[in-house]
Amino acid sequence: MNETIEQQKKTANVKIESKSTDKKQKNTEGRHVFEVEDLNLWYGSDQALYEVSMNVPEQQVTAIIGPSGCGKSTFLKTLNRMVEMVPIVKTSGDIKYRNQNIFGNNFQQEYLRTKVGMVFQKPNPFPKSVYDNVAYGPRIHGIKDKKTLDQIVEKSLKGAAIWDELKDRLDENAYGLSGGQQQRVCIARALAVEPDVILMDEPTSALDPISTAKVEELVQELKKKYSIIIVTHNMQQAARISDKTAFFLNGELVEFAETDDLFQNPRDKRTEDYITGRFG
Amino acid sequence: MDKGLQSEGNVNVQQMIEDKKRSKSLGEIIEKIIPWFLLLCAIVSVLTTAGILFTLLRESIGFFANVSIIDFYTGTDWSPWTGHYGVAPLIGGTLLITLIATLTAVPLGLMSAIFLSEYANDKARRVIKPILEVLAGIPTVVYGYFALTFITPMFQTFIPDLGIFNALSGGFVVGIMIIPMVASLSEDAMNSVPNALREGAYGLGATKFEVVFKVVLPAAFSGIVASIVLAISRAIGETMIVTIAAGATPNLTFNPTDSIQTMTAFIVQAATGDTTFGSTIYYSLYAVGMTLFVFTLVMNLIAQYISRRFREEY
């Protein structure tokens, strides 16, 4: 299974690179990591998502924007089934991750989450050393060899662009780091299990502008290897870093298009109102 | 609803505050007295502790004038009615009870805490937690009879030569008594682990078991250890259960089926018997009490040290 996915990835890579000059064509021909169809979601009797259908492209940054409470975080957490940690959640509709139905009976949540990593709104490192934080994922999946772990930790911290800052502080408690460093350690922690997709839930909303810039830069770097879906309430951020943007309003997906198109020629009146700052 | 609270009259809040300020003599006095009153209340408990410590020390010194302190702590024969004051059997009895109680309470209490904090749904928690807390409210004398008349006969079906009075059932029931303490304090510690940490681990594909045992437990470690040490120090001081169920035989033994006597049980025995005021036995109460006090004090200090030393900051 994994091999075929790797192959798919490689072929997809080639395709995207060859067509990268023509964005629209890439969009129609690129592969999808997620195919969402008619997704409805309820918290108890309150419906939070209405008939959401969208395809998330591979190895691009997909931004999800919308006012508070519009369901963008809920939608993101549905993709790795974290939303089900709230016991009263009910869903209908289909989500396919690389052609596998994630709601299927014999589809394991834990497997999904090793493929679909997540970075949260507030940095949430474990109260352990930097090293143990990054090594946590590989360890629970059975990697015990110290040398292998050393390699994974170094590679992941480098991947999260924080190795140079922290290479001499690996034994320090991650809680002693600054917020921006903590968030990048959390990104490194997610990278350590070598996921396929990374979900980011407003990853910079708790950070200062400099740390935000570093994380945004990192996202650009990461999309070479990973597919990224990022929820943000900052429209400039979406415009800066994403390839495609989805606009959610009151639990509905109003518009989903190339980021440039969506911001320059919004097709829906509500999108236009939102991006021009008439509400939200 | 739409009428509003009152028809708008001429209300001038600033004016009312001014008026209040001018007539505040009583309020002013109360403001001044309250801190002193509160301080007095706080001092009462400090003074009580100091008083107990002073009495224990003074009477112990009286005792050690008659019995050498070296004999007291190194002797292995405790039979005060024949003049032998080696406290080791009493300490041994206390430690044996404490050990059995700890072995009972820590696994059961910790597992209950993990269940309540991490696995139970709201319904189960609402039922189980109050029941567990009732366990803490049962008078210890009831526990004592429970040990003597139910637990001991039950154990005797497995261990035929178990005596009526034995350390095993006494210690076991002391353990049951301190389960709520371990469970409820450990649960508090686990509950205060932020959910963001759990989410972080789930997000990496961790199973529930891995989240609980590799994230939540380590993060709550200091609180859990503190709860265990506090429970142990409660077990050390427990009196009625061991007096009723564990017997009154100062044996220096680590065989849990034997009858033993703890420090507390001896104090009960000597204080309720016809011990003459001023006799050496009478004074020995204080020496034993002092020793007990040192034990629990040390346990409490250890608890404080551990909870500071191993705190995982979050």
UniProtKB/TrEMBL annotation, chain A:
Coiled coil: none annotated. Residues 34-275 form the ABC transporter domain. One of its GO terms (cellular component) is membrane. One of its GO terms (molecular function) is phosphate transmembrane transporter activity. InterPro entries: AAA+_ATPase (IPR003593), ABC_transporter-like_ATP-bd (IPR003439), ABC_transporter-like_CS (IPR017871), P-loop_NTPase (IPR027417), PstB-like (IPR005670). CDD domains: ABC_PstB_phosphate_transporter. Keywords: ATP-binding, Nucleotide-binding, Transport. It comes from the Bacteria. GO terms for biological process: phosphate ion transmembrane transport. NCBIfam families: 3a0107s01c2. This is Phosphate ABC transporter ATP-binding protein. It comes from Halobacillus salinus.
UniProtKB/TrEMBL annotation, chain B:
This is Phosphate transport system permease protein. Part of the binding-protein-dependent transport system for phosphate; probably responsible for the translocation of the substrate across the membrane. The chain crosses the membrane at residues 33-57, 87-110, 131-151, 163-183, 211-232, 281-303. PROSITE patterns: ABC_TM1. The keyword Transmembrane applies. Its main location: membrane. GO terms for molecular function: phosphate transmembrane transporter activity. Keywords: Cell membrane, Membrane, Phosphate transport, Transmembrane, Transmembrane helix, Transport. Residues 91-303 form the ABC transmembrane type-1 domain. The gene is pstC. GO terms for biological process: phosphate ion transport. It is a multi-pass membrane protein. GO terms for cellular component: plasma membrane. InterPro entries: MetI-like, MetI-like_sf, Phosphate_PstC. It holds the Pfam family BPD_transp_1. It comes from the Bacteria. Belongs to the binding-protein-dependent transport system permease family. CysTW subfamily. The lineage of its organism: Bacteria, Bacillati, Bacillota, Bacilli, Bacillales. The keyword tRNA-binding does not apply. It is found in: Cell membrane; Membrane.
